[in-house]
Design the sequence.
């Protein structure tokens, strides 16, 4: 049966215990059938053999779509199954190369939706080398069961942000969501980086292949590295863009945010539409922070759901948190002139609107917090982060709420074994952007020391977003050469001058 699937919008949503090793081989099942409500039919296929999948059309291309059934826990503590959807974009040439499995970021983004939407152009290019496989990780996208939580954060609007108070509220909301999962018979502890890595390995024989190529972005690189650690013998090579190493996922380095402030100042100085009030980024933020610390302000903003104005009070921490968050990614850097320009004029409405959106947001899926808690953080990295936070203009705001919640939810920590250095001879192409504040090039440099065969492509003018992940022609060319020849022509390319939005029109491409 063939089914036409509409194009996905090219957009990206702003993100807002010990697991026992698997000592026994668990038989996976490939479950295939339609995704149409009321028409689902499933057929089990022994892992390692090809099953007949549903034929669909995505963006005019004929692809295969199916389901992979895996155990909720491979240690046998539960008998539940998880169903993981996948899509195969077949190679457009006759090829014996291993299939390229895309490992989505987030955590929590849908790999199937991403490759059908924003990354579709790059997928078409990669199909000139091999099959490209998209899948939704356990707990993400259309995987079953869903970990959706109907709670909203419900942070108070009538007082400035207080990280300790907000963290207590966040912890209570997470507890409520976990209780609801358990009521539904779902084991939250099963949603961890170890089980997720083993899911990727289970997909391999279901696709009928001995070896695979891994292609991960952002958090997906973190998961891909765990696949290499646990199943490296079946990994032919890997491309990791925006590298999150084994000990990088939970807490970010405040020094990287400070570096973004400096780089943004340099960009603004070079921009023709910038003025003296905006180019001094540190000065604008220091002045605004001092004013808000002395006297928080209350601003009327628009509730887009009701169409009614509502009052929001913001203070210094709100400025730190919302500034740090936007500095790490492409959309935030691009819209900085308008955001900083308003602060320089004493206009706190953009800040208050962002605070309102954050405080009233829905919790969404519990998958991201569970995956990040399972990855945890080493004592050494905690020491570095806390030291840098004391000196940083924006403090440790970038790590809210995880820095406050990690002790309470430490029962989900998979242990130091998932954070230790990975040593491997799997060939890897690491890709980093010079304006990436979430996964700076230094992280790739740290991780590549454990790989005897690697290349590191540094992309000048790329941040943490689609410009780095999917849209940059030099990155696409390097990926294709690496897959075909095992090397790249140059280790540094430029996207040209980073383009900012105009001073009065905050857009912010992602």
Sequence:
């Amino acid at each position: 049966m063939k089914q036409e699937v509409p194009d996905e919008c090219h957009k990206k949503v702003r993100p807002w215990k010990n697991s026992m090793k698997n000592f026994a081989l668990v038989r996976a099942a490939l479950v295939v059938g339609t995704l149409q409500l009321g028409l689902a039919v499933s057929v089990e296929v022994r892992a390692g053999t090809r099953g007949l999948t549903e034929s669909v059309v995505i963006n005019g291309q004929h692809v295969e779509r199916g389901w992979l059934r895996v155990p909720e826990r491979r240690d046998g503590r539960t008998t539940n199954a998880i169903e993981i959807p996948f899509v195969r974009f077949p190679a457009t040439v006759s090829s014996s190369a291993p299939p390229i499995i895309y490992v989505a970021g987030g955590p929590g983004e849908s790999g199937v939706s991403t490759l059908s939407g924003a990354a579709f152009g790059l997928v078409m290019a990669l199909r000139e080398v091999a099959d490209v496989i998209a899948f939704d990780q356990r707990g993400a996208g259309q995987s079953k069961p869903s970990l959706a939580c109907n709670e909203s954060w419900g942070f108070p609007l009538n007082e400035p942000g207080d990280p300790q108070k907000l963290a207590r509220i966040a912890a209570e909301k997470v507890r409520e969501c976990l209780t609801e999962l358990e009521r539904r018979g779902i084991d939250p502890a099963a949603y961890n980086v170890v089980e997720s890595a083993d899911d990727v390995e289970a997909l391999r024989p279901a696709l009928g292949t001995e070896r695979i190529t891994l292609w991960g972005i952002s958090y997906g690189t973190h998961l891909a590295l765990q696949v290499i650690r646990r199943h490296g013998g079946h990994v032919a090579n890997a491309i990791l863009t925006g590298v999150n190493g084994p000990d990088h996922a939970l807490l970010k380095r405040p020094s990287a945010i400070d570096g973004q402030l400096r780089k943004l100042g340099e960009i603004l100085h070079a921009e023709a539409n910038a003025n003296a009030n905006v180019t001094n980024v540190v000065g604008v933020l220091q002045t605004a922070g001092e004013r808000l610390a002395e006297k928080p302000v209350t601003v009327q903003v628009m509730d887009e759901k009701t169409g009614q104005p509502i009052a929001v009070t913001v203070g210094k921490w709100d400025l730190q948190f919302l500034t740090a968050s936007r500095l790490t990614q492409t959309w935030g850097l691009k819209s900085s002139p308008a955001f900083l320009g308003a602060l320089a004029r004493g206009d706190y409405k953009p800040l208050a609107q962002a605070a309102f959106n954050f405080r009233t947001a829905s919790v969404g899926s519990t998958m991201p917090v569970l995956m990040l808690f399972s990855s945890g953080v080493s004592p050494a990295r905690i020491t570095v982060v806390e030291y840098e936070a004391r000196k940083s203009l924006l403090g440790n705001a970038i790590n809210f709420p995880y820095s406050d919640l990690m002790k309470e939810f430490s029962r989900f920590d998979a242990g130091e074994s998932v954070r230790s250095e990975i040593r491997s001879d799997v060939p890897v192409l690491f890709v980093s952007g010079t304006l990436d504040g979430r996964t700076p090039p230094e992280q790739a440099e740290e991780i590549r020391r454990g790989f005897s065969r690697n290349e590191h492509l540094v992309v000048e003018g790329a941040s943490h977003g689609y410009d780095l992940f999917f849209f940059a022609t030099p990155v696409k060319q390097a990926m294709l050469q690496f897959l075909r020849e095992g090397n790249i022509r140059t280790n540094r390319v430029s996207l040209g001058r980073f383009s900012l939005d105009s001073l009065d029109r905050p857009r912010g491409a992602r």
About this structure: The chain has 18 helices and 17 strands.
